[in-house]
Write a structure and sequence with these properties.
With 249 residues, the chain is mostly helical. It contains nine helices and five strands; from the N terminus they run E-H-E-E-E-H-H-E-H-H-H-H-H-H. It has two domains: 36 residues, no CATH class; 190 residues, Isoleucyl-tRNA Synthetase, Domain 1 (Orthogonal Bundle), CATH 1.10.730.10. The strands form two sheets. A three-stranded mixed sheet has the order 4-3-5. Strands 1-2 form a two-stranded parallel ribbon. Helix 1 links the parallel strand 1 and strand 2. Helix 5 runs antiparallel to helix 9 and helix 8 runs antiparallel to helix 9. The chain is globular and about 70 Å long. The N and C termini lie far apart (44 Å).
Length: 249
Amino acid sequence: NRELGATHLIYVVGGEQTLHFTQVFKVLELMDKPWANDCRHVAFGMMKYNGERLSTRKGKIVYLEDVLQRAISEAQSIIDNKNPSLPDKEEVAKAVGIGAVVFNDLKSYRMHDVDFKYEEVLNFDGETGPYVQYTHARASSVLRKAEAAGLSVPAATSFQALSDSEWRLIHLMNQADEIFERAVDDLDPSLIARFALDICHAFNRFYHDEPILIAEPAYRNPRLALTEATKSVLATSLYLLGLAAPAAM
């Protein structure tokens, strides 16, 4: 506190240490430390690997570096199969592999146990980091195609006669600031991760239901604006979670 001038002292340690930190903070309070009330224990659940609880004392250890390298390798294989001509595949695979591991850890409330399985965390269609990154890339692709066709996103547009999927997407994106602030106040990144997944579900439904580039201008302009807004919200969400936002996948 003296050296860094910190306004908050946050200890991110497993939930099994809750009693310890409660006692430490109480002792600091009894010692009349003025910064005792600035201390907070941010507890989290246990990490499981393929359903099995890890334990250093029992020798059940999985090194993070090994997990990341395998995730990157498997992401590379998926991308080679899905989009073999993708530029900078190695860089994208690294972003997707690391993102898959990080997002899997952050998407659930931090006190819940996390079970890590490669086939689940790297699923491009599941509740995963790659799914969020892929949806961001999809929105980016639509905007690139619009630009190539000489179409621009209007600075202002009229939202009239919107479909259910369009209204759903607008309603969700309108909650972004509130969600981000709650995540900071509660020290709970899962709020951002779940919000990003909700945005992805809503955008992909909209993308499936409504033509964008081939629609009449009265419909195309608001749909392009929605696509750009989706890209922006997802990019911000990924950034706040520490994930990259590839423009193509």
